[in-house]
Amino acid sequence: MSFPKEFLWGAASAATQIEGAWNEDGKCPSIWDVAGNHIKNGDNTFVACDHYHRYKEDVALMKELGLKSYRFSINWCRIVPEQGKINEKGLMFYSNLVDELISSGIEPMITLYHWDLPLWMHKLGGWKNSAIIDEFLFYVEAVIDALSDRVKYWMTINEPQVFIMSAYVIGNFAPFKHAIFSYKKCLRNCLLAHGKAVKLIRQKAKTEPVIGLAMASTTYIPDSFDETGIKEAAQYSFESTVGEGSNSVYMDPIALGKASPSMAKKLSAEDLKIISEPIDFIGINVYQPSNPLINKKKYNAENLPKNSLGWVIDGRCLYWTIRHYYERYHLPIMVTENGMAGNDSVSTDGTVDDMIRVKFLDDFISEMEKAVDEGIPVIGYQHWSLMDNLEWCEGYDPRFGIIHIDYNTQKRTIKKSGWHYRDIIREKSE
């Protein structure tokens, strides 16, 4: 077997991480715009990669790289700068971006929530307040009305595990709230917002939509590859404390219509009916295996390469996440994020020699291809990231892009990994 002709080879980004223009054209502040000294080096969202003003240049680079798709997010703050008010200038930016992508032969793929909660919504309680569900739907309807005549692929929410746990429990992500007892309330609101948004998209979309969400979904690599080892790995991935908290507490209600054990008393039968509104695919964001979190003794990471954030590089985790997710939920899979942070710089000859990312691409795509060859319906691969960007509280030091950004001049330079990815796309698309 080989990759299907319609396979969506692309790259991904998020609005807050690349757009800049944080207070232009009617946009209100998000919780990340006011993060202040929580972001390393005094970095901020204000200019970022200036994609808001340079999107045409960036789409031209995507075309040069041969991308067939581009996953990007809409910044809620551009669309609804104050409660009940729609900002046409914000919608126009994304409409122009969609037109530019389509004219370049690139499929636009939209994520509706990638963590840029409007400050006004945060002041109303954010994800702790059930009122966020209707506010989110008001925003979603505005986007669907403006863009669904040209956009087919939709993701409701990006990595609910991360923004709920990190933002409202651990408190190391915006809005930096250490409020552990709000966890189940936030999770229920998030799941209901997802389910109602899926239904709204189906009802209102002008083009038949393909709907999913993007999960921070890395799973456990089996310790042994016999039947027992594989079964044990799946149990670790979904039914251990870490596995439930990372995967099944979110996806079991969505894809199976049942609550995981820790949420059984929090989600009613009516809730589960809303949350399990049928989706078309599951997006998985995969960076490293969960083995180091669950069982360090059986997984020796000492000799494995690490990225610049210290995350283990082990391509097998992509295959096993695809397989574990498909065998549990029986839905098509899209790799919505996969990439690595580096310390990349431009050489004196003007190139960016990021050979570790070249090898990363080969290893991880090979593991994905293994899943495809086994008949698992993998529908796309969106490399994280299109360009270097703001890595949230880590600031601008970690570089995930296949395009290098000089943050002083905003000069774009395609890295060797970018050219290599172009060649992979050509080869796999033949």
What structural category characterises the helix and strand content? alpha/beta
User: What general outline do the C-alpha atoms trace?
Assistant: globular
**CATH-defined topology:** TIM Barrel
Give the biggest sheet.
8 strands, parallel, barrel
By CATH, the superfamily comes out as Glycosidases
How many strands appear in the DSSP assignment? 10
The total number of structural domains is 1
Structure description:
The protein has 15 helices and 10 strands. The chain has 430 residues and is an alpha/beta fold. The chain has a single domain (8-429), classed as Glycosidases (TIM Barrel, Alpha-Beta Barrel), CATH 3.20.20. An 8-stranded parallel barrel has the order 1-2-3-4-5-6-7-8, surrounded by 5 helices. The chain has a two-stranded antiparallel ribbon with strand order 9-10. The radius of gyration is 20 Å and the shape is globular.
Outline of this structure?
The chain is of the alpha/beta class.
Strand-helix topology:
Layout: E1 8-12, H1 15-18, H2 51-64, E2 69-73, H3 76-79, H4 88-103, E3 107-113, H5 119-123, H6 132-147, E4 153-158, H7 160-170, H8 183-204, E5 210-216, H9 227-239, H10 241-256, H11 269-275, E6 282-285, H12 291-294, H13 316-329, E7 333-337, H14 355-373, E8 378-384, E9 403-405, E10 412-414, H15 416-429
Helix pairs in contact: 2-4, 4-6, 6-8, 7-8, 8-11, 9-10, 13-14, 14-15
Salient structural properties:
430 residues, alpha/beta, TIM Barrel, eight-stranded parallel barrel, two-stranded antiparallel ribbon, 15 helices, 10 strands
